[in-house]
Amino acid sequence: MDQTCDVVVLGAGSTGENVADIVVRGGLSAVLVEPELVGGECSYWACMPSKALLRGTEVLAEARSVDGAAQAVTGEQDVAATLARRSSFTSHWDDSGQVEWVAGAGIDLLRGTGRLDGERTVVVTAEDGTRTRLTARHAVAVCTGSQSATPPIDGLGDVDSWGPREATSATAVPARLLVLGGGYVGCELATAWQALGSQVTVLQRGDRLLPRLEPQAGNAVAESLRKAGVDVRLGTEVTAARRDGTEVVLTTGDGEEFRGEEVLVATGRAARTSDIGAETVGLEPGEYLSVDATLQAEGRPWLYGVGDVNGRSQLTHMGKYQARQAGAAIVARARGERVGTGSWSPFVATADDVAVPSVVFTDPQVASVGRTAAEAEEAGLPHRVVEYPLGSVAGASLFADGYEGTAIAVVDTEREVLLGMTFVGPAVAELLHAATIAVVGEVPIARLWHAVPAYPTISEIWLRLLETYRG
């Protein structure tokens, strides 16, 4: 079968859905192509189920940290209820609600595996073998995302390991869980499963957890995990894996062995481009798509790489942001309009450069945006680091008895604007957007003095940081 439309979108995750929605709102037609669940990784195997697994632990920790409320907590977390609540947030891995939304938005959905087949052409193979050839008048947007990458460890491919999908959808708590990797996924899921009753061991090759963030963040999370009973091993190089009956055995370079019922591989992500027909348009299968600021593939004005697939910033909210920008650019170009590429153009994704916000939902939470001190140093920017204990702020001491946390500001001393901000502590996620606005808007330090934080809230940390900076 042959079909023509304005835009073909490969991948119906949150990024692809947003690209399709934007172009349809702009008056174009769009076909979404998806071989799995509509809604993608975030809805079923990442953001939503992982945060649902963590939320009960977070609430209990908050209650236990306030005298008076702590006495009311007389039991432990109900594991079955927590797993059931997690499953409710994935709609029990049923995408009918999202399919209904797609139809209501005026977007066509084609179930099957889509592969590029030359310029502006996609061939979709359905589960029953039926093939449909789609031709796009204006654009093909590749939004196929990323997948868990398996490190080159001898035997690891033969032990039936968990990836993030298995770890967020498991229906039973493993007695012992080995976690390979100490990044966002490894730290969050170690926190979740330890709290639900698993004995967790984290094996991190580097010398600290959360290596892309400020050192204080990784140090605080490591300390908290250890207090919770997690065995955190830093500087540990796993060289081999094998099954021994019902156990997985991981062996390090120095011969030490670690055993568990399951092993979660959380060492990184790889572009999901191996089987999308990249070679038919001169691209390398398995590689991230190289794109410009409007998410247009270099040398291919009809092709867009949006979200994880371009490797710029593998976070759901950044994928949605890129989708909005790419969708707007596709619509404008289809109308023959000029697409501006200035820093604040509605058609470009510039936040990816220096203003990516992220939250690690561990205990403590880590919320960050912009450059770290190390990144500012590497970029050769004149800067000063200002640090202040969050527990010294009245709002924090009211939030939790013995509140511990840190706020770290990286200030450009030449332009007197924020380059980056990191918060480490309970419930700091809700502080992040104010910091994001300050970084993106390059709000002068002198003007931030007039953004008065309400008392007594944790946001008073802004005043304390400014006072410290001024000396």
Automatic annotation (TrEMBL):
Transmembrane segments: none annotated. Its cofactor is FAD. FAD binds at K51, G114, T144, G145, S146, D308. The keyword Nucleotide-binding applies. It holds the Pfam family Pyr_redox_dim. Disulfide bonds join C42-C47. Keywords: FAD, Flavoprotein, NAD, Nucleotide-binding, Pyruvate. InterPro entries: FAD/NAD-bd_sf, FAD/NAD-binding_dom, FAD/NAD-linked_Rdtase_dimer_sf, Pyr_nuc-diS_OxRdtase, Pyr_nucl-diS_OxRdtase_dimer. NAD(+) binds at G181, G182, G183, Y184, V185, G186, C187, E188, G268. Residues 356-462 form the Pyridine nucleotide-disulphide oxidoreductase dimerisation domain. The keyword NAD applies. GO terms for molecular function: flavin adenine dinucleotide binding; NAD(P)H dehydrogenase (quinone) activity. Binds 1 FAD per subunit. It comes from the Bacteria. Residues 6-322 form the FAD/NAD(P)-binding domain. Belongs to the class-I pyridine nucleotide-disulfide oxidoreductase family. This is Pyruvate/2-oxoglutarate dehydrogenase complex, dihydrolipoamide dehydrogenase component. It comes from Blastococcus saxobsidens (strain DD2).
